[in-house]
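Table S2 (text version). Query chain:
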Amino acid sequence: MCFNGSFCDRFPVSPLHCCETDGVTSGLKTTLFVFTLTGSRCYLQHRPRCHSQAASHQSQPASAPPLLPAEHLQEEEEEEEEESLTFSLSPSAPLSPSAPSCVDCTMERGGMLAACLLCVSCGVCVVSAIRRADLFPYGALSGDLILAEGDDETSRVLLLPRPLHFYDSRYSQLYVATNGIISAQDLPMEKQYVDDTFPTDFPVVAPFLADIDTSGGRGQIYYRVTETPSVLNRVATEVHRGFPDAKFTPTHAVVATWENVAAYEEQTRTSGPSNKVNTFQAVIGYDETDSYVLFLYPEGGLNFYGTRPKESYNVEIELPARVGFSRGEITYLIFSRTEGPHYSVTSDEQSVKNLYQVGNTGIPGVWLFHTGNSYSFDNIVPASIGGLLVTSPTGGHGLFLDTTTAEYGEFDEYPDNTFDPDNPEEEDDYPLTGVDPEFQTAPAGGDHSQSLRPANPDAPSSRPEDSNHRVAYGGQDVPLTSETRYNSEPAEGQYAPPNPPERAPEGGAQQTQDQQPQVPLEVVDVYPPHRNASPLSPGGHVVSVDEDDVDFDTGVIQYTTENKETCDRFQQQCSQNAFCSDYPTGFCCHCLTGFYGNGRHCLPEGAPQRVSGKVTGTVTVGSTPVELNNIDLHAYIVVGDGRAYTAISEVPEPVGWALMPLAPIGELFGWLFALELPNSQAGFKITGAEFTRHAEVIFYPGNQRLTIIQTGRGLDDHNHLTVDTVVNGNVPFLPPGSEVTMDPFKEIYQYYPSVATSNSVREFTVVSAERGSESFSFQLKQNITYRDCRHHNLAAVPETLQITMERVFVMYVKEERILRYAITNKISPVGVEPTEPELVNPCYAGNHDCDTTAQCIPLEGQDFQCQCATGYRGDGRNCYDVDECAESLSSCGAHAQCVNLPGSHRCQCQSGYEFGFDGRTCVDIDECSSSPCHISARCINTLGSFQCQCQPDFYGDGFVCSQQEGQTVRPRSQCEQHRDSLQSGGEQDGRPSLGAFVPQCDSDGRYRSLQCHGSTGHCWCVDVRGQERSGTRTPPGTAPKDCDRPDEPERPKTHCEHYRDSVQTTSQEGYPIVGAYVPQCDDNGQYTPSQCHGSTGHCWCVDGNGQERAGTRTPPGTTSTDCSKPDEPERPKTYCEHHRDSVQTTDREGYPIVGAYVPQCDANGQYTSLQCHGSTGHCWCVDVRGQERAGTRTAPGTAPKDCDRPDEPERPKTHCEHHRDRVQTTSPEGHPLVGAYVPQCDAGGQYTPLQCHGSTGHCWCVDNRGQERAGTRTAPGAPPTDCDKPDEPERPKTHCEHYRDSVQTTSQEGYPIVGAYVPQCDDNGQYTSLQCHGSTGHCWCVDSRGQEKTGTRTAPGTQPKDCDQPDEPARSRTYCEQHRDGVDTTSPEGYPLLGVYVPQCDSNGQYTPQQCHESTGNCWCVDSRGQERAGTRTPSTTSPVDCDKPDEPERPKTHCEHHRERAQTTSQEGYPIVGAYVPQCDADGQYLPLQCHGSSGHCWCVDNRGQERTGTRTPPGTQPKDCDKPDEPERPKTHCEHNRDRVQTTSPEGYPLVGAYIPQCDAGGQYLPQQCHGSTGLCWCVDSRGQERAGTRTPPGRPPVDCDRPVPVAPTQRPESVCERWRASLVEHYGGTPEPQQYVPQCEWDGQFNPVQCYGETTYCWCVDQDGREVPGTRSNDVVKPACLPSVAPPTVRPLPRPDVTPPPNADITLLYAQGQKIGALPLNGTRLDGARSKTLLTLHGSIVVGIAYDCKENHVYWTDLSARTINRASMAAGAEPEILINTNLVSPEGLAVDVKRRLMFWVDSNPDMIESANLDGSGRRTLFDRDLVNPRAIIVVSSTGTLYWTDWNREAPKIESASVDGQNRKVVVSDGIGLPNALTYDSSSGQVCWADAGTKRLECVSPDGTGRRVVHPSLNYPFSMVYYRNHFYYTDWRRDGVIAVNKDSSQITDEYLPDQRSHLYGIAIATTHCLSGSH
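Corresponding structure-token output:
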């Protein structure tokens, strides 16, 4: 069919073009075209797949997008009459030019005749190229970054929020380059790729690879990564059009635009610069699994098609641009590399010219490609759309403005929703938010003409990307799925806060009062809607109350009983770490134990929290507006002490200084995660992760106003809080370089349902060079609205709480453009005032030493306990993450994959599955619901996938199907299109591209079932879509799979396979994880019937679900159960079996629990009629329910009852029987309870008159109610009262009887209270004169009031006093008696306290000369004061000392005796500590040569200092060593012995640890050639260093490899280069994992320095020479990256200004500390740390300052720089500049010391392991020591004695050494009992050397001769460096990241200083105004 030009002459269709054609594109069965005639314009819209003629007669659907030209959008008043012509084409009625015809022509306005005439007489309107306005939004208004001008520029690293899959690899960062490419790695210099042929050797997306130059303002290059819905929607639209079967929902997009860029031209050419410029765009859209790339070339955008090589040698050649993709080089055979797959779109200049004229999406200039997949991906797949396609008119892609629904809406998920868009009343509660400020939504029911018009008609075509409209090609729009995403733009259906921000006048039209009511900033009662509620009902939130006819309205929430919310329907709204509870009015979510939050969002308690988000808005500084375009905000909160750090990056300088006072931005995070004092709770427990904060700040005196809106978007995939911030308004101008200080303050928060508010006034001080010190203030009003749950009243929030911000620190870093806030926050009830720090529990003070991932639990007084946060393990001071995925602790179900997170995990569905309604269960995706197959094909859904099959009479692959009859040329199939596109795109000069995989198709165009890669030789089977069938790939050289063998329907992974594959069997470092149980599955993925644990050897049978079959488990070494034996039909467990199996017979550690009663069941699972207790021997009869039959219990040793004898008719139980049967005789765990009183009943069920207690022996008479008759109780052993004798008249109870009867002998639960003292009364109710304690055996005399008579108490087993003997005149109690009587022998509850030492006194009240401890058996002699006499203590196994023997003259205590007494054998409460090692000393106080541990049984020999002699330790039960035998010369421990001895084989509780690998060493301490794991049975060979030899590991049961056979010698490796050694040293300093911003040297493959060195992943770079020394003047700025050559100095780039010294505050003593890139100054006020006056002395960008020293004579500070490998100094005068002293032959300079007297400096270099010295100006350098050093760290010099001291933390043999300053007299000072001696200083007052050890955690001192060693503090955190001043040690601590002060005399930590910018502190030194005595 053809339309000639007359139609277009009559109806001009500009910009669409007319053409002549002689047919209609085949492949469309029926196509519906709609011409829209508007005045002089003609628009054509096509609708494919109109299947019936009836369809052509229908009117245009309401959802069809109007195709409006730009003029129509702007001038709607000038509407013209519109006519539409609709007709359909059918290929079954072919038309030709000779016989034109019209099929089914109709016309909606007019007649059929006119329509047919038009059909016959007009030529077809064809597609035009896209316009520039049709590109994705770009430019500054869209938040783009701009690449620097130049010829070869590369962007800073573009960090991706989520990894991108390109080909089959994951990338987390991208770079945009001048030369028309995007790369996943930093680019080489352009000469290495720009003039070469495709492909490149690095990963590239190339929309136009050519030599482009933007110098001199010739064009701009924009780029960004975005999550904006309008962009993501548009990407999804394109992908769904080009790949209809793709299940793709983009989460992020990268947009890069080259606008008006020019080609590089040599400046020597005579002709002037060309005016040809190009414009093009690349868009990368991706989700978790796939990536797609769009190339867009607008009409007129390409004006040059290639560039000349720079080295063309005057030959006029031009290389055409390369367009396509390259995977880059790939590695094989470890060290070899080969060209990876690639794909070319162009091959010559003509194909480049065609880029904007054609496309593979049906739209000229738009190209789409599938570029990556996380599972399997061979090469790029282009889109290919057949048929006649047209596009929209001017403006290109119509704006779909006829909707107000959110683009990420969830409305379709709830079919019950009855929202009526025509009912304006439903939208009146709150206005929709998130609308584009340029396109405001019209009022409900109002005229939409105003809402469609841009508020700013002068807005550029590059519109902001948050505009809320859809963009579509060809009238189609494919919305994204309704899955919720976290975006920086609010969705329309989202809850609108009570005080919406006012729009700036230039941002959009002001809304009328009717459109958006302005709510004042005050307390309001608001419920935000559900997260899953419809976005079209923002004001409604329906819950329910009691099931009565209740219907009331709160104004915001309507309660009704018609639609009750329950956990069954909505539990998916709860966190995975929460449980759901139903209440009468609805449901609520509650966090599980160990987590905190509001139930909808729960975080692990104690773990630090991270926050990320974006900051946008317009801030006017003075009169200058500054745009903030999606800049990053990150926060880190140490929940354990309330510190909140906030950083906002890329803040422009004018606004950066001005925003420093705006600490309220970071205060939100402090409130959310504040340190909680008692009776308070932090904000996150109330709000969860979804909230909106509205704050208004008014500055005084200028009355500037600023609004802050912070919106919590939930928790991201890493459990981090996402918060977006919008700031708008005015702030006062602050001079550059200002410092802002804010005093601590308090703020009161008021809490209402759903809202928290506060109102406060703050003061701040600004200090600047221009203005001096100025004071300002601001008022802060804020509302924080959130969604609470009113259905329960548990844990109600107090009405008011007070937040105390103890320290507020603000800073703007000009060079990095980072704005920082640091605030310490505590929340408490109002009025709680802080007390003195020493009186506050460390948990509340925040100065505890718990790990940052631990929770501090306050105990009594100053005590506290550190407990690792949920999801972490450790001792609380050191915690590590638990990998729930590896340990099978996850909650993920079938078809889900577990992803570990810090402290938690998340579940994600596998491909082909999605979360179901509950949000937790993965269900199959019905791909067929989206009609992915051809119209003539049938779609078959399968688990996790689908199939397409052509219908009968059609053939094809299911995606393209054609009729078999009447077809001469069939259309190309998907396989053929795929194959041909690769072949055409991969040819160069007629030769096919090497390495590219080209699919093979059969004669029918289908994919051949067997596909092979011609280059690699791999083969695999594919399905009909060409997708690889899992498990069919074979490597080269092996037989391929038989692909014609019918596939069993591909099954998803079974439960067994999921379980098996989720078990982590190796650690992150690659070591095997021993002891993990890995289930065994058969070929079908089912559990094998018999399962065995590889480590423990247990075996058992399982059912089909993998559940253990009861009774089948066998221990190791026994015959396994025959699991193939058929089970009898399994019946459900009976009650008896449930009861039996629930009894806990072992404790958590696996030990049996003795005394538990286990019921006995018969073969049918019923209770056996006779039950017996295995421990007590009692037997009784039970009924069918297992209930004891009354009267059948028999005691042990008596014949049991005949339980089969029928019961006599049962009478009701009597009171006595009820009483007897309810006595609890066993604990809840089943243990028997000894001592319970059980009443005795006679045969008639009545109380027997005489009752006796079976445990105590007391007897008494009772009445018929069982009540004791007064005066009838008799003690054990006494004849009982005759209970048949009638009662005498009852007298009132005496004091003794009241006391006796009030004693509680049973607990509330019915347990007997053992050990309670019960007074004994005589027949008259008076106290018996002799009282005895029934449990302890003590006896004493009492007076008539029951008071103990002094001196009458006797111990058990001794003769009691004669209490009838008259008292001697009472004397006052002696010291011994007071001591004895003051010992608490019973607990507050009355229980006896075992193991308490009670002193023994003689009859005169004096201490008996010999005292013994009744529990331990130790005895000793005491003096008259009760003090132990030295040397008299004897253990229970030896005879006690004769204490009457006079003392020899007392000698001073020996080291052994001090050690023995120091051993803590009793706790603070006086209880003995079991298992403590107490050294044994001989009579002279010397260590016995043989020492044994009383608890563990280990024995060893010691020297005269008590130090263990190596190799003498023997385990319990073995013969100990002969310690008198002289030692052979002791050799140091070998590496094997050190490794073996540090393996932890017992837990902290002393239990053995199963599964630990212990290296085996020979007699010489060397590794045995063969090593075996004792638990797993694995064996392997090792070399002399203990490293496993590859290929020698054998599993258990197989013969091990012969380790004595020689191993082929590997080629000799070259030694490490200086660059590589330096890099390894820095990585070790960073803890093994450098941060992205930290500097690590970049080395070439041969170990040489890369000529360009950069600071982390930034573009802060410089050039170095071949020795790694910086080339002066090459430091880059933020954008420019220097072009460096290895041996030639590059062009000079503007250097950064040199750092200047800012002198410390006026103070006599100042501590100087090194903190990464700066040196800080911390004044001392006396000996207290004056943190308020601390400041930065010197900022050194790019440095790592480690060692630091001070010269008091010349007032200079000296330091070592680990990053620059230099030693430097600077005067401490204002404006002084640093001076480099030494910059050669340094690798890892650390410790530094200055000898003030001799004018020398000394330093250690820990990589070459040497100590050097030089003059203070760097001259006279010499090496002092380069031998016998392993890891030297700290060094000091004592000028007064000329002595050097240094530490060496060699892990195998750490030591502290000394020598003279000239290198003579080297000796070891300390080598025993140290671990990692980091810090070293000299105590001039005592003349001792002191060190702080990060291994032992101790601070110790020793005299230079090794004597007088003492511990100053036993439990430091992680010290690094230390100095001494006035009885105080000051050390830097890596755990606290601060400076800590320790008092030498009290051994207490007295002070600490934590810098606001948190990072490790290194060296520390003392700066003084005059030299101190003994300066070192």
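Notes on Table S2: Confidence is low (pLDDT under 50) at residues 1-126, 386-562, 1607-1612, 1687-1698. The longest helix spans residues 229-242.
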